[in-house]
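Dear colleague,

Following up on Tuesday's group meeting, I ran the structure prediction for the two-component complex that the binding team flagged. I've pasted the input sequences exactly as they went in, so you can double-check that nothing got truncated or mislabelled along the way. The structure tokens for the whole assembly follow below. Feel free to forward this to whoever is handling the docking comparison.

Inputs:
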Amino acid sequence: MRHTLSVLVENRPGVLARVAGLFKRRGFNIESLAVNITQDPTISRMTIVVDGEERMIEQISKQLNKLIDVIKVIDYTFAPTLERELALVKVEATAQARREILDLTHIFRATVVDVGENSMVIEITGDVEKVDAFISLVRPYGIKEIVRTGKIVMARGLQSL
Amino acid sequence: MRMTAAKALVECMKREGVEVIFGYPGGAVLPLYDVLYEEKEIRHILVRHEQGAAHAADGYARATGKVGVCIATSGPGATNLVTGITTAYMDSSPIVAITGQVRSDILGKDSFQEADISGITMPITKHNYLVKDPDLLPYIVKEAFYIAKTGRPGPVLIDLPVDVQSAEIDYQPIEKVSLRSYRPTYEGHPGQILKAAQAIAEAQKPVLLVGGGCINSGASEEVVALAEKCQIPVVHSLMGKGTIPEEHPLSLGLLGMHGTVAANLAVSECDLLIAVGARFSDRSTGKVSTFATMAQVIHIDIDPAEIGKNVQVNIPIVGDAKRVLQQLVQKVEPKSHPLWLERVNDWKQKYPLKYKEEGEVIKPQKVVETIWKLTNGEAVIVTEVGQNQMWAAQFYKTKYPRQFITSGGLGTMGFGLPAAIGVQIARPDAIVFDIAGDGSIQMNIQELATAVQQRLPIKIAILNNGYLGMVRQWQELFWNRRYSFTQITAPDFVKLADAYGCVGIRVTRTSEIEDAIRKALEVKDRPCIIDFIIAPEEKVLPMVPAGGSIDKMLVD
């Protein structure tokens, strides 16, 4: 099953390589990874999505915790969370198709950020399923390019890391 | 105080209690070596290859429990440390490796003798540093030693660009380490300890499995106390050898691939397995799905990631082996299991470790046994890797912890001689025997020169069979006797000993074994090689084929 791990790490050079290296040498596949600093600039947060059975995920968490630069690891899979992903989607859009794509964009509360003669770039944020759904709906028009950030999550309510 | 970072590094090391450094100079560590030139308190041992420096530091660490230190220059010097660092990592041995690095301003440009050693050693160190800011060096050194020796010990590497070494800093001693992300757990959870005590009270057929963690935490006394109070038979992993005197009536010996029949059967049949500081390596467990299937498992380990990694555990206890056992011994009631002990003792009687004597043809087991006898079981045994290692493990019965020093996890051929150098320097008065094979000894034989220069009276017993013996044994048993490239020639070790300035003795007949060992024991100021020409096709037995169940052993 797919797990979402939130990993707080020291904001230092090489930490990403340490984390990625750990996944690599134990044969775990990272599905998505998003990193940036937190409210404390000495700490970065990595949100890692990884697919695997329970024991494997437990082992990953323990191995991550062993890294000296890792401050905390939380598995958010079963917690009430907000999750978001941002995607930029470049779609082929002839003059005739433009109206339809625009309608879809509005339904999804997405934004058109660029319009060319035969293309549009749409920015969409939301949970992974919403982004997936939007992409599958515009696919018939012809997708030129997609850039997705990977998932980030945050616990609901007052709970914080 | 104003001083160069190199000088500060040496001051920091003195504060950490470093007495000896194993190293090899080169362009990128010259500022540091220039400081060492005048240094009186720290002894520097010049090795002949950086791999030797890492193994020697490791041997020193294993013999003492202190942090071993090695130094190499950048690039090839640093990469030559890699095997030694991995060896230390696999066996949880605390070493600090210091490497020179090219100047900061040409770093990352494929400069002369540049290698990204902090990148290379990421998966084989507990932690590592590339120091860019000379002012941070004292903190980093303090942290490095702290990380190396606390929690589950392991190697730490500090990579130091040459200009950083020369930079002047304002040196202030660092008193304390504070790492928000590193807080090892030493005390076991009281509830879990209680559960463990209960399980011990209910068990009919308990077995204690002790590993290297017991040696590292100094838990010997506690292991013996628990075993005796509850009459629990004890088996050890290769790294756990020495935890309990092997002549103790409750000791069943080595577990696993080349373990004793009694140890393997006891674990296969037990209803409670108490593993302490052991990581259930595949060499110990054999096929995991058939390992200790009747048993509840208690696992005591300081590294939470070890628990449940290889074997499912019923009662996990994260903590230091010594402290957890102290608590556990207090909580348990005295117990006895006469029927179970009768059963394991019966196995012990029926299936002792044995070998067939064949007139004057030298049996390697006989050599090890004789060394044991003539050293009253008191010598420190260092081994190479392969058959020699297993015969040493089987036939040299240890009495105390840190007496048996061997590359367990990585199985590094060439470990023995340089590690023996580290051991002999740590324990100048001890009798140190490197039990070697003719293959392994050739992997770091250049370190003989180091031992000669330092006048170390290491004894090197080469069990010379003209083969890479362990590989040959596998080929014989599992590859239809196709001895593909396992016949190996060696130099004349007696002449070689002479060339290096040590004593060399050749032994070709069983009746000469004792005399040769006695003669070697008399050499006090230089290494002594004894070249035992042994029965070429002798096997290490018992043996559990790789991936097999440990209750199914080849016995002869």
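The radius of gyration of chain B is 24 Å.

Cheers,
M.
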